[in-house]
Design a protein that fits this description.
Layout lengths: L4 H4 L43 H4 L3 E2 L8 E2 L4 H4 L54 H8 L3 E6 L1 H9 L6 H5 L10 E4 L5 E4 L5 E4 L7 H10 L2 H33 L17 H12 L12 E9 L5 H14 L13 E9 L5 H15 L3 E6 L11 E4 L7 H13 L8 E4 H39 L1 H21 L19 H14 L3 H17 L3 H17 L6 H22 L3 H18 L2 H16 L4 H16 L13 H17 L3 H16 L11 H23 L10 E2 L10 E2 L34
Helix pairs in contact: 4-9, 7-8, 8-9, 8-12, 13-14, 13-15, 15-16, 16-17, 17-18, 17-19, 18-19, 19-20, 20-21, 21-22, 22-23, 22-24, 23-24
């Protein structure tokens, strides 16, 4: 079995420039098309500023006094294609990543009854790209599996070079289960998924930050909630800022002053920095009572063949999951699946004894068992059968930030990339697939069927509706006016539903259905819960139910009328946003709700794009995000408008001018943070959008706007000049162009910057010319 070619082609941890691909890059080298390789997507073969010889360096030194860092820590934004972290990088069974456009919207209107919009979003190419927001939604709401290993297992794995134990070794392999995974919906219809994922977590780590973070908003402790949410979003901002700074410094150290770049915002693919922001935001999903996505669906209990009392050790591990100090809170259902594995030491243990012990385990604990055969020695990069184990895509922002800070402070910091034997990788992939297909998914399907028949069906019947009505009015409506839950409510005074209550069971039912992609069942169950939670004044539960109902409705095939669809989705998002932000002070919930809704609305296309931008503006007005998130969101809104196609040769109904406006606002935000490369891309995208407008509608008609763009462009040019050559040097001579006052054009210095940037007045980008080649206004009429 051979590893994937991407995993072994070169020892270099950095293989492409630290910027997103550009849809207008074809103009860089004239008629010559760029090569399909990662590095050539951004720059022409003759002017690639980050050559392979330079990129092969494993560390870099910043322009300040900071210590060298491992460049592999920034691979998720340096690599132009998919960020690393999935075991399919090293899997022979992995499929080649799709090169199709991941960000294209569906044609038509999201609120129209066209045939195209009666399909599910998963039928588009967006779900095939690991960096696309739709794919991030699917990979964030997945079953969580806790890892609880004995000390002898951790000792064995530590000897292999994994200091955090078995969890660290298994973690990357859960991010894509090998092969097709068949899942049945509530109607018994089976569908195969090739991108099914699991999230391995370490048993007991929930006791640190997540529980107070989750309960704070429920109990009304706004100060505690604010601190916890601020910590999460601050860490995300810091991580993305480090990646951006690394890109800027890599640019300064390798970019030739004469090399122009005309990259704009890539409408066809998601910005790696925006994808990183979303991924780190979603990877910080807290263990909370109001939703069960982070609750364990199963717990893997592992012992090794070295253990002198294996059966007793497994009993002890099981007891600790129910009674130990590390057990989950009372609002987590304790009846999750227990899965038992025996780790066999291939180098020091007798396989016949391990097989006999494994049979004894199955007799004692049932069929949910697995024999995992691993070598106990550490794999080196130079070994013939060694393959690299990518870092997890779904590490939290705090984890990544700690790694980056460690790389800056330690003199002897080592590349965090680990290597394992190919036989170990094959054994782990087999284990993950067997557990998912034979134990985990069947258990979830069985629970969905039982809960739907015994709880949800009664709630949907006439008697269930009558009981809901009686709870709502509380025999006279006293509770409705009092502002507290009625006496018949199952909502605990501590701020949660007990796991055996009908509301908690139905919430788990809806979450299980969502994780198994049964959108119809999930949507109908969330819709029922919205009313119940509102009646009980369980506002965080109410917000989360509205949020997930809107997501399911946007993903599932559309069969509602235009008016009903827009009213239903907007009402759900309004309820979720208001409850999260105002009633619960949950900044994380409000941010996650609206940002993901923005992406799903954008993918629906048509008038859904206008709705997406409207919600984006609401996030900006609420100041939920920091400076980095604010700038990234403005970029994203420019892309939203740019992706809306118009009708006819004049593209009636397109939003090019609005797209250009948001690009300019994004550039302004990046300039304020001294991120000149990102600002340059935004200005280039604005130039592109303005160049598509008719001549008489260009920006040159508006003197104040032109002056503002001139100022921005000059700031970008000066910033890049200082970065490349220092404040005392000059890159190019200044050109002058004269325009007729009758055309409302003024005589001003041309702002053609040395990197092919946009001119301020007309946003024109052109190669540098000699003085003899300079003629009057540019051909597109924008000066």
């Amino acid at each position: 079995m051979q590893p994937h070619e991407d995993a072994v082609q070169t020892p270099s941890p950095v293989q492409s420039p630290p910027l997103a691909a550009s849809s207008i890059m074809r103009s860089l080298s004239g008629s010559q098309k760029p090569r399909p390789g990662a590095s050539s997507i951004l720059f022409s073969p003759t002017t690639d500023p980050l050559s392979q010889s330079e990129l092969s360096l494993p560390i870099r030194t910043s322009s300040t006094s900071r210590r060298p860092q491992s460049a592999s820590l920034f691979r998720s934004t340096i690599l132009n294609n998919t960020p690393p972290g999935s075991p399919r990088d090293a899997s022979p069974a992995s499929t080649v990543r799709s090169t199709r456009s991941p960000a294209r919207t569906m044609t038509g209107s999201v609120f129209a009854g066209t045939a195209g919009f009666k399909a599910s979003l998963l039928d588009t190419a967006a779900a095939d790209s690991p960096g696309d927001p739709l794919n991030l939604v699917l990979k964030s709401f997945v079953p969580h599996v806790a890892i609880h290993a004995s000390e002898d297992v951790d000792d064995l794995v530590n000897a292999k070079g994994f200091e955090k134990g078995l969890w660290e070794l298994l973690r990357p392999f859960g991010e894509r289960v090998m092969g097709k995974v068949n899942v049945r919906d509530s109607n018994g219809v089976s569908r195969a998924w090739e991108d099914f994922s699991l999230r391995f977590t370490k048993f007991g780590e929930h006791s640190n930050l997540q529980i107070p973070d989750a309960l704070a908003g429920l109990n009304g402790s706004e100060k505690q909630s604010g601190r916890a949410k601020e910590s999460l979003t601050t860490d995300v901002e810091k991580v993305v800022e480090r990646h951006l700074s690394f890109a800027e410094e890599a640019f300064r150290g390798t970019m030739e002053p004469q090399t122009p770049t005309r990259m704009g915002l890539d409408v066809e693919a998601t910005s790696p920095y925006y994808a990183l922001y979303l991924r780190r935001l979603l990877s910080g999903m807290p263990l909370a009572p109001h939703e069960s996505f982070a609750h364990p669906v199963a717990c893997v209990m592992a012992i090794s063949s070295r253990n002198p009392n294996p059966i007793e050790a497994l009993h002890r591990l099981y007891t600790e999951t129910r009674e130990g100090e590390k057990r989950y809170p009372v609002w987590v259902d304790g009846e999750y699946l227990r899965y038992y594995i025996l780790v066999h030491d291939e180098e020091n243990s007798d396989i016949s004894k391990s097989m006999a012990l494994f049979e004894q385990m199955k007799r004692n604990f049932g069929l949910h068992c697995h024999l995992l055969r691993l070598r106990s020695s550490e794999s080196a990069e130079t070994d013939d059968d060694s393959i690299p184990l990518p870092r997890s895509d779904w590490m939290t922002a705090a984890e990544e930030l700690a790694d980056i800070e460690e790389s800056e402070t330690k003199e002897d910091f080592e590349d965090p990339t680990r290597h394992i034997f190919e036989s170990d990788a094959t054994a782990i992939r087999t284990f993950v697939r067997e557990m998912a297909t034979q134990s985990l998914i069947p258990t979830m399907e069985r629970n969905i069927s039982v809960w739907n028949d015994q709880v949800a069906s009664k709630r949907k019947g006439i008697s269930g509706r009558f009981m809901s009505l009686s709870k709502r009015w509380a025999f006279g409506g006293s509770s409705r006016s009092s502002g507290i839950a009625s006496s018949s409510s199952n909502y605990d005074a501590s701020g949660f539903y007990r796991p055996d209550s009908p509301e908690a069971i139905m919430r788990r039912l809806a979450d299980f259905a969502f994780m198994l992609r049964d959108w119809k069942l999930a949507m109908s169950t969330y819709d029922l819960l919205r009313t119940d939670f509102q009646n009980d004044k369980a506002w965080k539960y109410h917000a989360a139910a509205n949020e997930m109902a809107a997501f399911a409705l946007l993903i599932m095939p559309q069969n509602m009328s235009s008016k009903t669809r827009i009213e239903t989705i907007n009402q759900m998002l309004d309820n979720a946003f208001y409850s999260y932000l105002t009633r619960c002070n949950s900044l994380y919930g409000a941010t996650r709700c609206i940002v993901l809704a923005l992406e799903l609305l954008r993918l629906r296309g048509g008038s859904g794009i206008d709705e997406a931008v409207r919600w984006g503006i609401k996030v900006l007005e609420s100041r939920l995000m920091g400076k980095i998130g604010d700038a990234l969101l403005k970029e994203r809104m420019a892309i939203c408008y740019a992706s809306k196609s118009g009708a006819g040769s004049q593209a009636w109904g397109s939003r090019r001018r609005k797209s250009a406006l948001w690009s300019v606002l994004g550039a302004e935000a990046w300039v304020a943070q001294e991120k000149y490369i990102q600002a340059q891309k935004c200005l280039n995208e604005a130039r592109k959008m303005y160049s598509l407008l008719p001549g008489e509608n260009g920006i040159q008609r508006f003197e104040v706007a032109s002056d503002f763009l001139a100022m921005l462009n000059d700031q970008v040019k000066q910033g890049l000049q200082v970065d490349l050559l220092g404040p005392e040097e000059s890159l190019v001579d200044v050109e002058e162009e004269t325009f007729d006052h009758d055309d409302r054009r003024t005589r001003r210095t041309s702002m053609i910057n040395p990197l092919g940037g946009a001119t301020a007045a007309g946003m024109e980008t052109a190669p540098l010319q000699s003085q003899g080649d300079v003629s009057g206004p540019s051909k597109d009429g924008f000066g």
